[in-house]
Amino acid sequence: MSSSSSLKSQILVRNLSKRITAKQLQQYASRYGSIVDCYLTENDNEGFIEFTDRTSVDLFMSKRPHLIDGNELQCQRCLPVYELQKSVKRIFIRGAVQQLSENRLANYFDKYGKVISCTIPKGKRNNTFTHFGYAFVAFDDEDIIDKIIQDKPHYMDNMELEIEKAEDMTRNRRNSLSRSPSSRSSRSISINNNINQSYKRIRRESPSPPSPPPPPPLQVQPIKRLTRTTDEFTLRHLEEENRRLREHAMMSKHHFDENMWKLRRELDDERRRYDQLKLEYDHLRREFTHISTELQQKTTTRHLNTNNKRDFSSRR
């Protein structure tokens, strides 16, 4: 494939109509700049457009949505294979976050587009109030995220910021729950209703057992009045316990976030491997087609030369 620098001038286009050809796609995209290459993948549902410069890509992405043959195209900047290809609206930042403020971080990324929010989680660790070492920045457009990823690495105060795409874990969890099958089928519910009706009928027909004798009256002991010293000690104990519980909850949340991002990075690695294999396959398929065409042309030329030699020999 092309080098990482040329990726800034490439666009991935999805949701193409089956009737669209590479030439038609190139004619449509050429109104936004000069085209270096344009081709469709094997399934003809997506294609790649490479412009001569990044300015044409910025113009093409700023004019979204694009409609061709009644289909709205899903356009995305091409990213390195080791980056998450999914379109998101947030980034996850690690590195020199402890030395930065939310305003400085938001001002740095404001040059790429509108910043919706910038959050640096904070909390107590070892009885000290500190940063957790990461931050989230949200934007109003998914294309801004891809542009930031293309411009990596980023530096602030001569320190590199480790930037990754941040998926919406709450939405993914909600979608997974909505897609999960029901725990009980309609047949099991009807069976349970029949069992409940049979149980009620048996209870009505069976004689009721004799009522048990009333329990003896409870002996209520008078509550001793707490002294002022006991009240103060109990209050201090409850406050200390509440503080410990809050610190424990904060640390548990921090460990949960770390484990969640660790699992997310593993999932990202698998997706990157898949994207890398897919891109390598497309590249090899194009090379194979090119070599086959050249070989066919050489074979045709060789046959023509052989036939000409035979004709010349027969004339002699």
* CATH homology-level superfamily of one domain: RRM (RNA recognition motif) domain
Low-confidence stretches: 176-185
Specify Rg, calculated over alpha carbons. Answer: 34 Å
Strand content is 15-25%
CATH topology of one domain: Alpha-Beta Plaits
Query: Any guess at the CATH architecture of one domain?
Result: 2-Layer Sandwich
Number of strands: 13
Give me the strand/helix succession.
EHEEHEEEEHEEEEHEEHHH
So how many helices?
7
The overall pLDDT average reads 78
CATH class of one domain: Alpha Beta
The secondary structure category is alpha+beta
Q: Major sheet: size, sense and barrel closure?
A: 5 strands, antiparallel
Q: Which term fits the overall shape?
A: elongated
Alpha-carbon distance between the termini?
53 Å
Tell me roughly what share of residues is in helical segments.
40-55%
- Order of strands, main sheet, comes to 8-11-7-13-12
Description:
The protein has 316 residues and is of the alpha+beta class. Among the domains are: 4-77, Alpha-Beta Plaits (2-Layer Sandwich); 90-171, RRM (RNA recognition motif) domain (Alpha-Beta Plaits), CATH 3.30.70.330. Helices cover 48% and strands 19% of the residues. It is built from seven helices and 13 strands. It has helices spanning 22-29, 54-62, 102-109, 142-150, 169-179, 186-205, 228-315; strands at 10-14, 35-40, 46-51, 67-68, 71-72, 74-77, 90-94, 115-119, 122-125, 128-131, 134-139, 154-156, 159-165. Strands 8-11-7-13-12 form a five-stranded antiparallel sheet. Residues 207-219 have a biased composition (Pro residues). Residues 175-198 have a biased composition (Low complexity). Residues 166-232, 295-316 are annotated as: Disordered.
